[in-house]
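=== RUN LOG ===
request id: a7f3
mode: sequence -> structure
chains: 1
length: 299
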Amino acid sequence: MSHCPGRGEEVILGDQSHIFIWEQGGISQLAGVHPRTVKNKDDGTFDIEEAESKIRSDDVHLTVTRLICVENTFGGKPLPLQFLKDVRKVADKHNLSVHMDGARLMNAAVAMDTAPQNICQYADSISMCFSKGLGAPVGSIIAGSKAFIDRSLRHRKVLGGGMRQAGILAAAALLGLDRATEKIKMDHDNAKRLAQGILDIKNDHLSVCLEDVLSNMVMIKVNKGINPMSICQAMARVTEEEETKLGCIVNLKMFPGSKTTIRAVVHQNISKSDIGLAIKKIQIVLDSFDDGKGYSVEE
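=== RESULT ===
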């Protein structure tokens, strides 16, 4: 809304981006902004020439292109700086703004071993979440020019997003920022441990590309024959038998990202020993699928 003040204006964004797929199409419902998609590559980038070809000409029959959006990280992968530089170049050429959905911006910075400002320099505005990666109980932030923030404050107010006595939440967010690098590095290491543990199980139902685990997300490929939702439901259940085997209750909350993938996200409250228990739980669940002990398996 702050970048596209006129109803029917347009944003160019990836076809697999969060802004496009989720949030009930909020950019159209609430802001009257028309999304025009480009095909996302596996690393979250898109073809720069394709994006430029989608920029509208000055024609009364067409929408007006105002904005390019990128998502960082994308599926746990940080966007390459050269890609961001190329997006900025195209935006400047056509007098467009660039917004970065940086919900996990700090994960991207740690993964790339660079300062956040080296990533942010290519965007006009950035959003970042304090509860993803930083461990705060709640909260997000947007950053941009003073004029952009002034407009955003008005939009936030009319959408009902204003908060009272929010200082205690801001304090938690500041604490998360202070400890960000150390905590996020631990999360990334634990994500690698989880991915390696799944590979070490050597079960045909699940596979992971270790090279793709660059931050705190593990994208698990589910091979033909099992429904990802069934696996996630099994991971969340606890049987007396497995509690006896593990010596404690292990409840894994994973997300069925698609018909062939499961997303596992590591956060600061998960320790190295927790990862060990999670791997054992996964082994037990996969064994139960192999044994056909009541779990739902696709025909």
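=== NOTES ===
Residues 52 and 90 are 7 Å apart (CA to CA).
The radius of gyration is 21 Å.
=== END ===
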